[in-house]
Amino acid sequence: MAQVRITGEVPNLRMLLDDLNSSPEFSVGASTSIVRVEQESHRLGNAELATLIIEVGVGVASSAVYDLLKRAVASARRRGALTTEGLGTPESREQRPEEETAEPDAVDSGA
To answer: What is the pTM of this model?
Structure first.
């Protein structure tokens, strides 16, 4: 089984899980658990964070489950910040260091 981990605020994860559970592909091809994230007491804000752990079986149905997960995560990201592991989704442009370190194109000074 492959594992996908999604970390975010608890209400957003609950909505994400509700969206996923409404799909027959997900209920057949995956299992879930939620683990609360320990937070430092001086952390700004009062949002509770958790990690949704999704075990996806290997096989023909797993492709449909991954497509469903990607759509649901995209929707959940519009509601709030999420981090994912094991989903293969590209990070936002600001988080790609290889693009920031690329050499700028040379400019011909005409000399």
So the answer is: 0.70
The model's pLDDT over 21-58, given as tens digits with 9 standing for 90+, comes to 998 888 777 889 989 988 765 555 667 899 999 998 77
Pick from 67, 81, 31, 75: nearest CA to 52: 31
- HSE-CB at 63 with a 13 A cutoff on CA atoms is 2
Q: Where are the alpha helices (DSSP H) in the chain?
A: 10-21, 24-29, 60-79, 97-100
The C-alpha atoms of residue 63 and residue 66 are separated, in whole angstroms, by 5
Count of C-beta atoms within a 10 Å radius of residue 33: 9
For Cα atoms 86, 87, 90, give the angle at the middle one, nearest 5 degrees: 115
Q: Contact, 12 vs 20, CB < 8 A? A: no
